[in-house]
Design goal:
With 81 residues, the protein is mainly alpha-helical. The protein contains 5 helices and no strands. The protein has one domain. The mean pLDDT is 87.
Amino acid sequence: MNRFEDAIARELSTLVRARTRTIRALARWAAAALPPGAMVADGVALVVERLGDGDPDELAAEVMAEVPDRFGRNWQSGPAH
């Protein structure tokens, strides 16, 4: 996890109640989806907008499955940090 992803994850953790692994997966996806030069708030807004009233775990599974080559198929296994 890079510093940009970590910053998005920190902000998300204050807004979204979910497992650490889920928060990190959503932050990683948001960071990869944003254009260069985007701000942390842009990443948080992207996740919150796509999440809506949905389940964070389901969204994390969905976005990680969209591009498995980039994130790996087993993002849920192993240590959370």
